[in-house]
Amino acid sequence: MATEAELRQYQDYLVAYGGGYLRNTLWASDSTCRHCCGIPGNPDFDTCYPCSHYYEPSGETSDRRGFVSYGWDNSQSSRVMYGYKEQVPSHQAYRVVNVMLFYALHEHLRCAADPCHGPAAVWATVPSLRGRAYPQALHVMTAGLLRNMPEALLGPAGDIQAPRSLRPDNFVVHSQVRGQHVLLLDDTWTSGGHAESAAAALKRAGAARVTLLVLARWLDLTRGRTEEFVRTELTNDFDPDRCPFGISCP
Amino acid sequence: MTTKDRLARTQERGRSSLAERAALVGLLNTRPGERTWPELTALVLERGEIGSVLADLDPTELFASQEQVAARKESLAQVEQWESEELDFITVLDDRYPERVREIHQAPPFLFARGELLSDDPAVSVVGSRKASDQGLVMAASISHALVEMDVTVLAGLALGIDTAAHCAALDAGGRTVALIATGIRKEYPAANRELHHRIASEGLLLSQFWPDAHPQKHTFLMRNATMSGYGLATVVVEAGEFSGSRAQARMAVEHGRPVILTDLVVRSTEWGRAMVGRPGVTVVSSVQDVQRVVQQIRSETRRIDMALDRLVAV
User: What's the ipTM?
Assistant: First the structure.
């Protein structure tokens, strides 16, 4: 646990060193998808195509999703979200991502508590399907921050196909998760297939509930009206106290 | 990962070989798939090496045509030529490439250096108008002196006006100064600063992100300002107009998550200065002591946050 003074220090740090380029996600906005807060290609729809056609109908994806920020290519957000996990990590990026993750867990994990299953009791990170040789930075970071919570081991399957589509068989659950509320973490969500497949693998292994917490909802500025959305609607500097789950925090 | 682990990884960076440097020059000249320099730089950083990027992006490289063989020879000859001129060519993967510059999304793929490169150079940009008032010039000099007093490097762009005042004051006070220039490193621009150019190269450090003979162009100034924002711990804008390079640097610094210090003169006299008050990391100062206090705070911030983060993961 952190003291009030320490929390204040993290908050100030995140605002001073990330506030100028990080952007809070928008839920309950006419412009964003109600499942993933991305930008639906058709502005008349409230859900984007993959969410409404694949994830929601499957009935086995995550129950709740939180997105701490938006990010996009060729920007400081991309430098930070890639830089923190390079083999030689960028110091600034590592600090910002570490504080961002800590603050979201400390302040907003309770926002994802479930009336029946309570707060998440087990955590997992979405493993890479590209076979990286070195340990994944987000996993190392989370293991340090959540060391008092048990981990559910989730790994890539031997046979990986279409890693970006909804394919739960791309993942293997090595731990007992039956009846549990699992917190699943990932650093970026682009189209969501990767993370939702991991969530579905946990569901198939018996998890009662999966809450997904993602640090950056990645936007493709070349698509539809996304660039305009970023320019006109993401004008406010980052506020760490805005809820990634889009609720008024308890 | 603790701060110690991260620093240990950083120490693993070495110096790129002649062949690796030539491979980078080749990659930037051929731009496989018409990728931009920032895209290529991002790939190089992600892979942590140069050779495989070229081979992957351009598989025909493996069965090189005569032109490709010639192009490769040319890149190598170029790098050897720079070496013989004692032009220091540093790739984005080199241990000597300034860490803070590598942290910004416009990190140049390479830098040319003349002078002494320091690892973790504690620098602060002191920037402002070319056509500065007498008051502005005096302020730039006293801010520069105050930074030297704190053993902070004075960083500027070798332009006339505020930049020149800041560089000169630092040199006169026996401090370190770094110039990030908007031309190739062989150019002496502006002509009036030819002597200062050489003095900084021999007593401080001159850095350029362009090919050695590049002329100054509108966009090179902007690119240079982005790099300057990256190199420094913070940017001080002493005096600036409504539309100026300093304004652009202040905006980019906020977008990089780098502190910006505006003098009350800038806030009083520009609309953009007023609009920046309250943005993340922006402070307004009204005295040299204010500058020292804010810079001191910024310098200790990194260490404090690292210690706090290490405590979080300590068993």
Answer: 0.93
CB pairs under 8 A between A and B: 110
CB contacts of A237 in chain B (<8 Å) are: 279-280
Nearest-neighbour CA in chain A from B99: distance (Å):
8
Amino acid at the residue A25 = T
Q: Chain B contact for A141, CB < 8 A?
A: yes
Chain B residues close to A16, C-beta within 8 Å? 257, 259, 280-281, 301
Q: At what angle do helices B18-30 and B66-84 cross, to 10 degrees?
A: 120
Residue B313 lies in a domain: no
CA triple B138-B245-B129, angle to 5 deg: 25
pTM to 2 decimals?
Answer: 0.95
The answer on B149 and B70 residing in a single domain is no
Please check whether residue B315 lies inside any domain of the structure: no
Q: What range does the domain containing B284 cover?
A: 123-304
Four-residue CA torsion sign, A113, A118, A119, A122: negative
Judged by a CB distance cut-off of 8 A, whether residue A49 touches chain B is no
Residue type, B259: P
Nearest chain A CA: its distance from B215 CA (Å): 26
Q: Are residues B58 and B136 in the same domain?
A: no
Q: Which of A20, A92, A147 faces B280 most closely, judged by CB atoms?
A: A20
A106-165 pLDDT tens trace? 999 999 888 888 899 999 999 998 876 567 899 999 999 999 999 999 999 999 999 899
Which of A88, A141, A237 is nearest residue B279 as measured by Cβ atoms? A237
Torsion sign, CA atoms B205, B209, B212, B216: negative
Contact B257 A18 (CB under 8 A): yes
Same domain, B127 and B92: no
Residue B114, domain member (yes or no): no
Look at residue B109 and tell me if it is in a domain.
no
| pLDDT of B67 strictly over 80 | no
Report the residue from A88, A98, A144 with minimal CB separation from B12: A88
Task: State the Cα–Cα distance between residues B111 and B102, nearest whole angstrom.
Answer: 11
Position A119, amino acid: P
Distance CA B142, CA B156 (A): 15
CB < 8 Å to B100, chain A: 92
Tell me: the pLDDT tens digits for B96-146?
999 999 999 999 999 999 999 999 999 999 999 999 999 999 999 999 999
Verify that B24 and B149 share a domain, yes or no. Answer: no
